Each structure stands twice: as C-alpha cells, then as structure tokens.
Amino acid sequence: MYAKNILLDASDKKLKEISAFAEDYKSFISTAKTERECVKEAEILALKHGFKNLDDVIKFQQGLKPGDKVYQINRHKNIVLYHIGKKDLTDGIRILGAHIDSPRLDIKQNPLYQKDDFALLDTHYYGGVKKYQWVTIPLALHGVFCKKDGSTVSFAIGEKEDDPVFGISDLLIHLAADQMKKTAATVIEGEKLDVTLGSTPLKGENENAVKANILKLLKDAYQVDEEDFLSAEIEVVPAGKARDYGLDRSMIAGYGHDDRVCAYTSLRAILDEKETPEETTCCILVDKEEIGSVGATGAQSKFFEDSIAELLTITDHPSYVDLKRTLTNSKMLSSDVSAGFDPLFPEVNEPKNSAYFNHGIVFNKYTGSRGKSGSNDASGEYFAYIRKVMDENNIYFQTAELGKVDQGGGGTIAYILGNYNMNVVDAGIAVFNMHAPMEIVSKADVYEAYLAYKAFLSSK
C-alpha cells in the first residue's frame, strides 16, 4: 500500500477503529506531558497488561520463559518493555524505540523573583523552539520537587478547568515599532521567556511581598521552600487537552506529538500482543532526544544495553559475546515523526520525497542534515525487508526526507542504535507545526503506525 490515501477506501469498520484509537491517544497525550508522566502512564498500562518489573524478577531470581512480559524503569525517565519470545535471545530482538521528551521551557534552579510588583519564574528553553510561539498562550506547570529527606512532590497546575493558568507576556502592537524590526529569531529573547506567577502582595511584608505570597502558597499546597527549587524539575508546557482538529475531525491538535505519538503507538503495539512472539519483542522509550540523546536517560546511555545484559544473564547467556550477538541480530524501527507536507509552505519540500497526511506510516531511509550529516542511512536490504512486511500486512506506508537537501534536516535516535551493528530504520508519523506548542497529526496515520508496529513485531 505504498503512497496511497488511507481514507479513500477505508471501510466503516476501519474508520471506527481509527476514531476509537485516536480517543485513547488523545487521553494519553493530554495526561502525559513530561517524561516522568509518560513513564508513569506507561507503567500503569504495562501492569494492566500483565507485565512484571524486571528488577523484581532479578531480585527474587524468578527466571524468564517464553511468553513472560517484563519492564524496567531508569531514573523515572526511561522505560523498556520486553515480551519474551520462543527463540533464543541471541537470535535477536524486535525493537521499537521512541523518545518521550518534547520541546518546552524548563525552570531554572534559582527561578523565582519579583519585579515591579509581579512574581515571575525564570526559564531556559529546552530543544529547538521558535521562541515567539510561546508568548501570550495559556501555559501549565508540570513537575516534581525533590526534597532533602528523599521525598518527592509531584504536581501539575493549569490542566483542570478550575486551575489557574500561566503565561509569558508580549509587547502590545501599539508600542512595538522597534520590536517589529527584529528578526523572528530575536523578536523574543530567551531571557525574556519568564512566566508570570502572580501580583498579590503578602500583607505585612515590605520587600518582595508578591514573591513572599507565592512562596506561602507553595508552602501551604506542597510543603516546599524556596531552596527546594534547587532540586526541582519543573517544565512549562501548553495548558489544555488534545483536541480534534478540522471540521471533519480527521486530525488531532495537541502538545508533544513529537514524539509521544510514536511512543504511544509503539507502546500499544507491544501491549496488545496476544500470542507469544517468535523473537523477543521490545519497546524502549527514551529521554533527551531533543538535545542530542545525551546523559543517563538519553539513547546514548548504557541503560538499554545493560537491561538486555540482565535478560541474557537470567536466561543463561552472561557473556559479552552473547550481548553483542543479540544486538547485532536485532531489528529496530526507530519511531520518530516526520515533517508533513504543508500546502502553505511548499517551497521547503521536495514533493515526491515528502510525507503526506493520511498516507500512513513514514519511513525515512536516512535523516541527518544537508549531506546526510548525523544520519543512520539504513541498508537497501533491510529497507526491502520492511517493504515486504508492510505489503504482506496491507499496511499503508510512504517514504520521505525532511525537507529539501539544503533546507535543513533533523536527527533521531536511529544512528545510536545503529552503532550496535543492528538493522535500524526510521519509521514515524507526519506532523504539522513540529516543535510548536500545538502540533497536528492525522488520526488515520496514527492508527496505521500502530498497525505497522504490530506487523513489524510479529513478522518473520
């Protein structure tokens, strides 16, 4: 089903399935707006589907057999799930990998200050953003205070109908003559992306009375002090739920489609496996892709490698050679979004190598920028295998590049897993407004990606 529109010949049954899956996805993406929240929701779903914590299996020396389902969490920001197959692990694993971080604003460690009778939070933007898109829109605060006694306080403010929302002000057009002369990159500066928290002074305070009132409200609600910001992780994200987009309700508008749309569809693909797979299947959700996949929770971390080593040890394959054989024999879909062809901006795309809404999952043989810099570039043999799997399962799919050759480009986690000498190709969903506070995807594409991931996990 190469380069065909799903909706042209979709049956009523499939249209209902597309709609039902979209509702589940909207619920997930509206709840899980940070990496920690994604991992928490994924664990809840995993437990409902019979998965056990791998750390408990290791601790109690329970062993593993075909059909067992286990998961492991790393520092609250990674989760990996395995469905143990009939074949030996060294024959290879079928892997779906996606990232769960999205562009946003992070709160600095010393963020709270008062200026001209307003209390504000100082921020540092995370990932590639157009800074001007983040002003004058309703924002929410999601995060956790990690206290010295070892306890944590999680919160989300701005999502309930009776919650307050937050925002970043902008200059009124009447006084913006000088501002309007600036380029889009500088019209809003990074140090100007400060979030307004309040304007009410605390009675009895002479200096910084508005800041003092904010601290009192935080103390009353969460039992935290100003110094607790030092060990807090607080993210500023767009407020509100994901919504149907378009009069025909064919699309979804929401924050964080990049890359939680691929994370959710990958997660659902492994959760919904009914039979014991031939080869062990896996879904790995990682952090930090938007800033280079670095750190202990990024794809470049040794967590995934160590997790597989634990599986091998449990199944009597403790050697380094066994680990290398397992990774080399594995197959992976690096699940990440592609730029959808936007009719308002056709000049940045090369039409015959672009991703289109309602045409199914998008395969990127290579990504990178300009001269394929930073690209995985899957082999022709592996791409032929993927085509075969899609056609045998009647999956709608398309291929694309990220814009014209000299226009720009982007990267994914594919090259990192490719370093293990495994077969990897990028596979995801077309998105409009990528990295904006409101991104758009096609419901039909979301469902087709889920079907494609399921087909890949069960393919021979």
Provide keyphrases for this structure:
globular, alpha/beta, 460 residues, 6-stranded antiparallel sheet, single chain, 9-stranded mixed sheet, Aminopeptidase
Distance from N terminus to C terminus (CA atoms, Å) equals 19 Å
Radius of gyration based on Cα positions: 23 Å
Reading off the top of the CATH hierarchy, the class of the largest domain is best stated as Alpha Beta
Largest sheet: 9 strands, mixed
Overall 3D geometry?
globular
Number of helices: 10
CATH-derived topology of the largest domain: Aminopeptidase
Explain this structure to me?
This protein is of the alpha/beta class and 460 residues long. The protein has 2 domains: 6-102 and 255-458, Zn peptidases (Aminopeptidase); 104-238, Aminopeptidase i, Domain 2 (Roll). The protein is 27% helix and 23% strand. The protein has helices at residues 12-31, 35-48, 54-59, 209-222, 257-271, 303-314, 320-328, 380-392, 414-418, 443-458; strands spanning 52-53, 69-74, 78-83, 94-99, 104-115, 118-126, 139-146, 152-157, 195-198, 232-238, 243-245, 251-254, 281-286, 331-334, 338-339, 361-364, 368-369, 397-399, 409-410, 423-428, 430-431, 439-442. The strands form 5 sheets. The protein has a 9-stranded mixed β-sheet, sandwiched between helices. Strands 8-7-10-5-6-9 form a 6-stranded antiparallel β-sheet, covered by helices on one side. Strands 11-12-22 form a 3-stranded antiparallel β-sheet. Helix 5 (257-271) packs across helix 10. The longest helix is centred in the first third of the chain and has 20 residues, at 12-31. It is globular and about 70 Å long. The two termini are 19 Å apart. The model has no long low-confidence stretch (mean pLDDT 94).
